[in-house]
Design goal:
The chain is α/β, with parallel strands linked by helices. It is about 60% helix and about 10% strand.
């Protein structure tokens, strides 16, 4: 079955096969929504579980996520046509002063793999840019990453800027990164904290379902 082949290709991080099998599935008349949920999302959910169990590591997650993105690139035009409902829209970015992007990229790819619409603002993102994107995109969640303790205050500045802009009650804030803790997330008034990409995806699902 083609969907099983897509699932397997994503699990193995085989991007060319994932893309080719996705195209073949579409040509065979399999609905884009079925390919997304049973192929891509199911595989990335399994990847996340294996990571949390210590049976898969960050490099393998990245490779699987890239394979999933290969399939998603083929799927996206058809998902729009089929009016597939996304669980939510997430803006991700590494905060001002911080240029690290591997963790943030992985979170973005895992969220896409879970069906979220992801807008990636990149690195060194100011509070003003987060506010502007939240307003323009009508986002459900803002995901902020920091890998340096010196840039963590930028997270608090962004929360304050969203409050001043009158957007704080309209958007959930999810924070993560090596130096970030649950205690820090609570202190700055974030709605959620995630230590890794897999838990970030699970937390994002919780935040949108609670909204």
């Amino acid at each position: 079955m083609t969907i099983a082949a897509i699932y397997q290709a994503v699990m193995e991080g085989d991007a060319p096969t994932a893309s080719a099998q996705t195209q073949a599935a579409l040509e065979a008349g399999i609905p884009a929504g079925s390919i997304l949920t049973q192929g891509c999302i199911a595989a990335m959910t399994e990847v996340g579980q294996l990571f949390e169990q210590g049976e898969m590591f960050v490099p393998e997650m990245l490779i699987a996520a890239r394979a999933m993105q290969g399939a998603m690139n083929v799927l996206k035009p058809h998902l729009a046509e089929g009016d597939i409902k996304s669980p939510g829209k997430v803006i991700v970015g590494t905060v001002a002063g911080d240029l690290h992007d591997i963790g943030k990229n992985l979170v973005g790819m895992m969220l896409e793999g879970a069906g979220f619409e992801v807008i990636d603002l990149g690195t060194d993102v100011t509070a003003e840019k987060f506010v502007q994107a939240a307003r323009e995109q009508n986002a459900d969640i803002i995901g902020m990453s920091a890998l340096l303790t010196t840039t963590m205050p930028s997270m608090q500045a962004t929360v304050e800027a969203l409050t001043e802009a009158g957007l704080r009650d309209k958007v959930k804030i999810l924070v993560g990164g090596a130096p970030v803790t649950q205690g820090f997330a609570d202190k700055i008034g974030a709605d959620g904290y995630a230590p890794d990409a897999s838990s970030a995806t699970r937390k994002a699902r919780e935040l949108v379902s609670a909204a």
